[in-house]
Write a structure and sequence with these properties.
- The protein is about 25% helix and about 30% strand.
- By secondary structure, it is α/β, with parallel strands linked by helices.
- It is globular and about 60 Å long.
- Strands 6-7-5-15-16-17-14-18 form an eight-stranded mixed beta sheet, with helices on both faces. A six-stranded mixed beta sheet has the order 9-3-2-13-20-19, with helices on one face. A four-stranded mixed beta sheet has the order 1-12-11-10, with no helix packed on it.
- Its EC number is 1.-.-.-, 1.4.3.3.
- Keywords: Oxidoreductase.
Amino acid sequence: MATADAIVIGAGIIGTACAWQLAQQGLRVLLVDDQRPGATAAGMGHLVCMDDNPAELALSSYSLNLWRSVVDRMPEDCAWRDCGTLWLAEKPEEMAIAEVKQQRMAAFGVNSELLTPQQVVQLEPMLRGGLAGGLRVPGDGIIYAPNAARWLVDDAGQAVQRIYGEVIALEQQSVVLASGQRFSAPVITLACGLQADKLLATPLLRAKKGQLAITDRYPHTVKHQLVELGYGASAHASDGTSVAFNVQARPTGQLLIGSSRQFDTLNPAIDMPLLATMLKRATDYLPELAKMNIIRCWAGFRAASADGLPLLGPHPDYSWLWLALGHEGLGVTTAMGSAALIAAQIQQQRTAIDDTPYLAARMFATDECLL
């Protein structure tokens, strides 16, 4: 039976960030990797400050500051770019949303600037005319999340040991793999997204399917991450199917196009009508996209909690079990902040921001043991 100070289950961006943060605290960590591509491999890799509720804003702004403290040390293949985000108002009344967004962000020290229609065109000439303006958030960025996750493990050095296999059971301070191997540690952190529900008797997460498309390489002029101001309503809708304009210029010269959301399906196949709707929405903002070749489309699954906030904290019934789950579409953005909260809780240190809104115990209605 191998031992460590902590075990982290899940080697996506959340799990690797948790392992990295625990290693910074001097702990020896076993990172269990089932080698199945998850949300980290399928997502857009945006580092974007979101303000749809105060808790989301607090965590995303805190986490972005932590990302900025390490991005200069990342290798080039992590594809970090400080491109900023340009939130676009399609109609004049949406500028009121931009103004509120600016005020909320300013309260957390996040700089942004309101833009006139003329300024939007000057910054991004590929956008169609007739937009009502926008809000530029220069501190946002992008990374290539799969490589960033690998870098976090590499940067931790010998403090993090990667173990390959599927966890099929949790026992008292132990994990059991499908191979029959057993590993133990005083603390275990569950950071494996939708797979966590298989290990817990109470379902905590809901699947939100998303689809993305990427173009061939072009000498285009898109500089920012481009997002419509209606994105928040689409992202946080509690039911139904939705699309919203969201385009990134990748360092490769490609355009990554999103986004869509479908609920309660685990079918990995591309939904062609929904993809067509998503691409039509994108060409409404960037007409030249219609002339570009789409070379790949794919789908992935976000793990969402019932209230839209991640579950970050100890399981209410098991003092040795921590949850780092339910980040939905903000896993990359909030990975470093989430991991810092988890590490501080495990070490019984004061958290840098109030962790009350994210504590996992809020999702458990009873004290009945689950494992």
